Amino acid sequence: MKRIASLTLLASSVLVAACSSTDPMSKLDYKSDRAAPKSSLEVPPDLTAPQVQNRYATPGSGAASLSAYQQSQGDGKAKPSQAAPVDGAVLAKVQDVRMARDGNQRWLAVGKQSPQELWPVLKAFWQDNGFVVKTEEPEIGVMETDWAENRAKLPNDGVRKLMETVGLGAVYSTPERDKFRIRLEKTTEGTEVYFSHRGMYEIYTNEARSDTKWQPRPTDPELEAAFLGRFMVRLGIQNEKAKQAVETVTAPAASGDVRAKLDGNKLVVGDSFDRAWRRIGLALDRVGLVVSDRDRSQGTYFVHPAQSEAEAKAEGGFWSSLAFWKDKKPQAGGKVDNDYRVVVKPASDTQSVLMITDSRGAALPDAETRTLLGKLRNELQ
Q1: Each residue of 39-70: pLDDT tens digit?
Q2: Position 331 pLDDT exceeds 80
Q3: DSSP per-residue codes, 33-102
Q4: 3-class secondary structure, 225
Q5: CATH code linked to domain 253-320+334-381
Q6: Which residue windows does the record flag with biased composition (Basic and acidic residues) (predicted)?
Q7: What is the 3-class SS of 283-316, one letter each residue?
Q8: Element (H, E) at 379
Q9: CB 3.0-4.6 Å disulfide test: which of 130, 181, 217, 305 passes with 199?
Q10: Which CATH class is domain 1-33+85-252?
């Protein structure tokens, strides 16, 4: 990528930002490299969304014949019960929102709200924060953004202002990109909301600095917490209260000195099943394993490596060094089975056991098992 901003520029901008504000939620000004789709006007909390009528709506792609179109339009009269939903529909002010923490993992516990109610609010939240929502799987409660740049890390100097004025602000860029995976878990009290961060860093590949490539960088739990705080504000929590939650939320006492340890072909986690299930789900997100389905009653996550990681070895993807799928034989039809099952079982009131198998439940090669469990152990410590 050709850019004016250098590593020195990024370092100086971070210093300026650190001196100008101590509020982690105020240092976020993201912009995606892709154009965001246009969305309808969003209604602030505690206000009523206007009724949307279809009187002048153009026919969609669903009606393939005149009779089908006429049936879908009915008699042409607006019916309040069939009004089209407004993109980014919001909830009334939510009172029962708290931030929880376990080690370096944080999440929101939203009381009396279902994942279905929170889904459109989450989508609008990320779009309004400068991200493009890349994938949506509401049936399993998983959403993922595209890569975006934090423009707040750029220096707000006269040169940049001049470039912005003449429409060339985009030539200023940082060598960092971030994306987030959002996961919703339904609970007996409401819904738990998880944000997991993934980052990339651009480096020069030669002394002439003519070529660059992207390398993965560590996850940033503090950045996850800052966005969780912003989402608390979106749900109606006062800004000062959300800021305090980000800064002062305390971790519960650990159930043992060692949170996770390898034991042969399994990983022993020092948590009850409920807590282990929660922490393992977030750890899977962080290491680049996409949850395609889950069955909590059986303690099973069905996962596969993120497609971009599995296919982009040249771009330095996280899983490029663990590309076991390159040695796997195709199944019938020429498809390589890259899916895994992550099974969590309670061992006692204070311990759980994690095992990884292939998509059919068969054991994996020892080297593959140890490497995958090692990555998860690092996240669960």
Answers
A1: 544 444 444 444 444 433 444 444 444 444 44
A2: no
A3: SSPPPP-PPPPPTTSPPPP---TTPPP-TT--SHHHHHHHHTTS---GGGPPPPTT--PSPP--EEEEEE
A4: helix
A5: 3.30.310.170
A6: 26-36
A7: HHHHCCEEEEEEEHHHCEEEEEECHHHHHCHHHC
A8: helix 366-380
A9: 217
A10: alpha beta
